[in-house]
Automatic annotation (TrEMBL):
GO BP term, example: cell differentiation
Record protein name field: Dynein regulatory complex subunit 7
Organism per entry: Sciurus carolinensis
Complex formation: Component of the nexin-dynein regulatory complex (N-DRC). Interacts with TCTE1/DRC5. Interacts with DRC3 and GAS8/DRC4.
Biased composition regions of type Basic and acidic residues, renumbered to the chain: 226-247
């Protein structure tokens, strides 16, 4: 039903008529001649000429008797509806299909479950239909179309209007188990024209972060009282007021900016508001654990609440089983509609065979129907009037794997949102693996780029997402697991070495447990996790290079580290006083600083500082460790004092560890250069990975399959050629290349037959010999049993019986083989003789002797 505002009468405006002079007429004519009337572009239409009707099945071209009866029922329903509701629009019941045959709209829906798991949920189905098809506007925006094509034809042409979109989506959703319906109603201008320029792109909406409430520990009975708060309450109140004024000012500015944005994006009044016909999909709650009824706009693939202002009214809706007409008033759009299809007051159904439950009767109505005769008569009357919906005339909906992968028409689709543009591509269409790009802008005209997000698939370097901030120039690359260097996130502004960058790694996939590396022109910071030496943090400060080489090669001329700071996790196997928490190598000052972990019962930790000196003086004499070379701070000096020898050994060990830390810093620089070089090479090469199951794109798999088929074919030919040749041993005795004579042919035949006869006799003798041997052994075993029967134990008797059973089985088998051989031997001999007579090498020569 149309919204109530459409039915309001326009106020009559009377204007006082004034006579027009000749001068006024000339001015009006001049103004009209200067006006330029824009010529509208040709609207996109459905390609009727591209549909080959001859290839369609008979169900598309004709109607069955049940379908004809359904059309008569629909016409009768339409006449009654027009008589009772003359002020409403005609119902959309039986439009023409692609073969110009009228088909009832419910039979156009073909419930189909797609063989792709990605199309099992409603959101993925709606997005696929929106991406796969191209929208064609309705020929007349004020009434439903005259034609409703089958989903198979729409999929083939990849074009359709909103009714074609809804029919295809409804067929897929019903096949997936949803309670879905096609809706014929009225929508806003944005909805009918798929204009998303006033909508926010879903990819730009950030998910709400759940704020975890910190659980306060229960107060302890003997807790230490906190110190008194000596801050001024007056100053705190003044600071709170100042912060509140700042927030109010920011909120005011934000509100004014939103109002300006709303005013700029406000659409001009639509003269056809409430009259534009549109079709969408209704999904009722219940099935597939749908908690609440909602709408799906098949053009955009987005879901909407039933309270949304884009949906202005509903005339009717249908599924593959029935057809319902909305009898509720849409004065408040669709916000007050009750979608209880079992209520005949709100929804008038066409067929009695609806699967929707009727409203429960009141007690008075229940008492009136207690008479069994009335109930039986009512049931008989309903049975007479019931009519089942004919089956769908549409063929099975099929989507090939190539179509499912390509999705968009010609592999590309562009959507425009409010201050955003979304581009989609099919996999492998772009050489760099780009499948999606989201560009956000600062202004509504989309001229100043703010951010760019690019999604990739099947990249050899495992690149998944690239986030480019145009205002700051910051680039963030996200990688999937599988990168050669276990790279996870790379944040940078330039690919040049020794610049600001942050690299995050999959620490589980790395041997050294590196989790994160931050680099600046003069520093490098690394974070570790899960290392056996409990290293957690390393910070390196580099100094200027000693000498400058051409190319500034880091490999040949590394930067000297000035300061190396390392921090360690707590090692539970060591006491806290001996477990180093932080060590600092000051290479230029020749000092080493150590800080140990703090004990649980202390508030401070031990510290040591070593003054590193050369091991020999200017005269070559060895310098002895002195106490002033180690400055210590002991929390408990009376517990244990470190001797000079221990300090000397510790300092020598720290020297070796300092060399190792310098070497690891140099290796980290080399690794950064290697990663940057690898990323640049992969960015230039654009190598895409292809699955072994993708036989069409995987050239190696295709070549391997063709090679295997070729080998199998050659093996088959070789087996055909090397079949058993019964004359081969005898022909080998003759000189090669010599033509057979009649006497030689007769001799070959006799030798072949005599040899075959001898083989049959030998086989019979062999079977007979085995039979006699088994019989003799069984007799000997029986004689042994008769002689030792008294002294045998139960286990020996069981073994004897088992042996006799097996021996009798072997004897029976040998007897059967011998009898079968005696029966088949003459037949085999005659068959070989017949083959020899028919052999092309002997047939002509043996005719004389025949």
């Amino acid at each position: 039903m149309r919204p109530a505002e459409v039915w309001k009468e326009e106020a009559s405006i009377t204007q006082e008529e004034t006579p027009m002079t000749q001068e006024m007429l000339r001015d009006l004519e001049k103004k009209l001649s200067e006006m330029e009337i824009p010529t509208p572009a040709d609207p996109l239409t459905f390609p009727k000429d591209t549909i080959d009707i001859s290839m369609l099945p008979p169900s598309y071209k004709t109607n069955t008797p049940k379908e004809e009866l359904m059309l008569q029922v629909a016409d009768n329903f339409s006449r009654q509806y027009s008589h009772l509701c003359p002020d409403r629009m005609p119902l959309f019941l039986h439009p023409l299909n692609e073969c110009e045959v009228p088909k009832f709209v419910s039979t156009t829906i073909r419930p189909t479950l797609m063989p792709y798991p990605d199309l099992y949920n409603w959101d993925s189905c709606a997005q696929f239909v929106s991406d796969f098809l191209t929208m064609v506007p309705l020929p007349d925006p004020l009434k439903p179309p005259d034609h409703l094509y089958s989903s198979t034809t729409v999929l083939k042409c990849q074009k359709g209007n909103c009714f074609d979109f809804s029919t295809l989506l409804c067929s897929m959703l019903i096949g997936s188990g949803y309670d879905a319906y096609c809706v014929n109603g009225y929508g806003s201008w944005d909805l009918c024209h798929m204009d998303l320029t006033r909508e926010v792109c879903p990819l730009t909406v950030k998910p709400k972060e759940k704020v975890k409430k910190e659980e306060k520990p229960p107060p302890k009975k003997y807790a230490i009282k906190p110190p008194r708060d000596l801050t001024s309450r007056f100053e705190q109140e003044q600071e709170a007021k100042r912060q509140e004024e700042i927030r109010a000012h920011e909120e005011k500015l934000r509100r004014e900016a939103e109002e300006r944005l709303l005013e700029a994006s406000k659409m001009k009044p639509d003269p056809l508001h409430g009259l534009r016909v549109h079709s969408w999909v209704l999904v009722l709650s219940g099935k597939r654990e749908v908690p609440e009824t909602f709408f799906i706009d098949a053009l955009s693939g987005r879901s909407y609440s039933t309270q949304d202002d884009h949906f202005l009214g509903i005339e009717s809706l249908w599924n593959h089983k029935n057809y319902w007409v909305n009898m509720q008033d849409c004065w408040n759009y669709c916000k007050d509609l009750v979608f209880d299809l079992g209520d005949p007051v709100r929804w008038e159904y066409m067929l009695l065979g609806t699967d929707k439950p009727y409203l429960s009767l009141t007690e008075e109505d229940d008492d009136d129907l207690n008479d069994e005769d009335d109930v039986e008569a009512l049931g008989k009357e309903d049975e007479d009037k019931s009519f089942d919906m004919p089956p769908s005339w549409v063929q099975q909906i099929e989507i090939t794997p190539e179509e499912f992968e390509t999705r968009c028409p010609k592999g590309k689709k562009v959507l425009h949102y409010q201050r955003a543009q979304l581009e989609k591509w099919a996999p492998y269409l772009n050489p760099n693996g780009l499948v999606c790009r989201l560009t956000t802008y600062e202004d509504l005209e989309c001229t100043k780029e703010l951010e760019i997000k690019e999604w990739y698939q099947n990249r050899g370097d495992m690149l998944e997402l690239r986030h480019i901030n145009k205002s700051t120039g910051l680039i963030i690359d996200y990688f999937k697991p599988g990168h050669p260097q276990a790279l996870r996130v790379h944040t940078y502004k330039s690919m040049e070495p020794e610049m600001d960058r942050v690299m995050e790694f999959y620490e589980v996939a790395r041997v050294d447990g590196l989790k994160k590396r931050e680099e600046t022109p003069n520093t490098m910071t690394e974070y570790y996790q899960g290392r056996p030496d409990f290293l957690a943090y390393r910070h390196i400060i580099f100094g200027p290079r000693v000498k400058k080489l051409p190319g500034n090669s880091t490999d040949s001329n590394p930067r000297p580290p000035v300061k190396i700071t390392e921090r360690f996790y707590r090692n539970p196997e060591k006491p806290a006083d001996d477990d180093v928490a932080e060590r600092v190598f000051l290479t230029t000052e020749e000092r080493i600083q150590l800080r140990y972990h703090c004990r649980s019962d202390h508030i401070t930790a031990n510290k040591r500082e070593f003054l590193r000196r050369t091991e020999v003086d200017s005269k070559g004499n060895k310098i002895i460790m002195t106490p002033d070379m180690c400055i210590s701070f002991e929390v408990e000096p009376m517990e244990h004092t470190k001797k000079l020898l221990y300090q000397y050994e510790t300092m020598m060990q720290l020297k070796n560890e300092e060399k190792l830390s310098k070497h690891q810093a140099w290796e980290s620089e080399l690794e950064v250069l290697e990663i940057l070089k690898l990323l640049q090479e992969e960015e230039e090469a654009h190598t895409l990975t292809i699955s072994i199951y993708d036989t069409k794109r995987n050239e190696k798999s295709k070549e391997y399959r063709e090679a295997m088929e070729r080998v199998m074919h050659e093996e088959h030919l070789r087996q055909m050629e090397t079949q058993l040749d019964y004359l081969a041993p005898f022909l080998a005795q003759l000189p090669p290349g010599e033509k057979l004579t009649r006497w030689q042919a007769m001799r070959l035949k006799e030798e072949c037959l005599s040899d075959f006869k001898q083989r049959l006799i030998d086989k019979a003798n062999l079977i007979q010999a085995r039979f006699e041997k088994e019989t003799q052994e069984l007799q000997k075993k029986q004689q042994w049993y008769q002689e030792n029967q008294v002294a045998l134990s139960p286990e020996d008797e069981d073994l004897y019986l088992s042996y006799c059973s097996q021996a009798m089985f072997r004897i029976r088998i040998l007897e059967q083989r011998l009898n079968r051989h005696k029966e088949l031997a003459p037949l085999k001999y005659l068959a070989l003789e017949e083959k020899l007579h028919k052999d092309p090498r002997l047939a002509e020569l043996l005719k004389v002797f025949g």
